[in-house]
Write a structure and sequence with these properties.
Length: 189
Amino acid sequence: MKRREAFHGAPGPVLDLESRSSMSAEKSDQASTFDLEKFRELVELMEKHDLSDVSLKGENQHWRVKRGAEQVIPHYAMPQMPAAAPAPVAPAVPAGGSPAAAPEAANDPNVVDIVSPTVGTFYESPSPDDPAFVKVGSKVSADTTVCLIEAMKVFNQIQAEVSGTIVEVLVKSGDAIDFGQPLFKVKIS
């Protein structure tokens, strides 16, 4: 009595092992023992037909062979950040209280710009209800956070990177800014 065994695999076709001459009838009838030759043939067939999963069923046996690692697709959850509406801001007034003080700051060699390290949206405070991180007259050190820049829904804290006093705020909350754009003028102390 011939035993019909089917070779199933994904993504290839189903193969009928009954027609394979290398599988002898004697080996097929030995259902109770592990047949290393049959296993080797399965592996060869998998390689020959580029199969990743094989199932071999007989009357008394069922073999399943898989090759390759299980494919795991990582799932990344994006943190939810509340959307902050920009707060209305009055135009910045230079340190002297008059618009004439701004040109003086531009000519002073001790005045440097804090520039944007990225493209994004400028925010002067962590939320619309909070006070600005800094304003004209604020003392800052190198690690003082002066603003937030939102880029692709990520809020980046921008540090002063110098010590001194803010003499001018050059942008307002909600402004779109470019890489390298000056944000503040600081008189170095």
